[in-house]
Amino acid sequence: MHVLQRIAVQADDKDLAFRTVKDNLETLLGDVSTNTNTWFDWFVTGGGRWNPNEGSQYNDDDQSMTISYDENPQAFLTAVDEGISNRLLEFEQYRKYYNEKNVDINAYLDKYDGQMSFDFSLYELSKMIDMMYGKWDFNSYFFDMQHDTTNTKYMLESIDNGNKNWYIVFVDFHF
User: What is the dihedral of CA 160, 132, 136, 148, to 10 degrees?
Assistant: First the structure.
């Protein structure tokens, strides 16, 4: 599956922002044949399949979707807001499915024997908790690489304190 994420980073210019995100993600991913530490197994920096420029969907060097706060604060903040809106939509879907299951959480807690369970009855609850705790995964839609968080708070505080050199780099993740 694919998901479009907005990665926020501080940099002196657009090219450095783009390269910082790409390089950090490549480092996180490491050797694809042995790495099991990331939620994604490959990515396309620059928006991938969401890039509107024909022929650029899989061009891992297309910076046309990178947004500078300093150059276009409205587009930057809109991109951030869209990421959070998408996260909330995912959260509500999980909540709906979890409520429909009518799971007795206490029954699951009572029968826990110290071993991993392969039962998916609590999957939706676990994903909602992941989002509430800020775990970065396919449901996040936004990640502040500067502060290593899915929370927009620190980035927005930095902007409010006069740090305008923020960029959003769109990345198509496969998981």
Answer: 40
pLDDT, one tens digit for every residue, the chain (175 residues): 999 999 999 999 999 999 999 999 999 988 766 767 789 999 999 999 999 988 888 888 999 999 999 999 999 999 999 999 999 999 999 999 999 999 999 998 999 999 988 889 999 999 999 999 999 999 999 999 999 999 999 999 999 999 999 999 999 999 9
CA 16 remoteness from chain centre: 20
Q: pTM for this one? A: 0.92
**Number of domains the chain contains:** 1
Q: How far apart are CA 16 and CA 21, in angstroms?
A: 9
User: What is the C-alpha to C-alpha distance for residues 101 and 110, in angstroms, rounded to an integer?
Assistant: 18
Helices (H) and strands (E) in the chain, counts: 5, 5
